[in-house]
Amino acid sequence: AEPEAVGVADGASSEGRALELHLADGVPVRIFSDESRLTLHALESFGVAASSRYGAGGVFYTWRPVCTTPCEANLAPGVYPRLLIAGERGRSALVRHDVRLDGPSDLLLHYESRRKVRAVLLSLGVTLSAAGLATLMGAAFRIRARCDDPALSCGLNWGAFGSGVAMLFAGIGLTFPGFSVRDRGEITVHPFGALGSFGPEREDDAMH
Question: Is 0.85 surpassed by the pTM of this model?
Answer without folding.
Answer: no
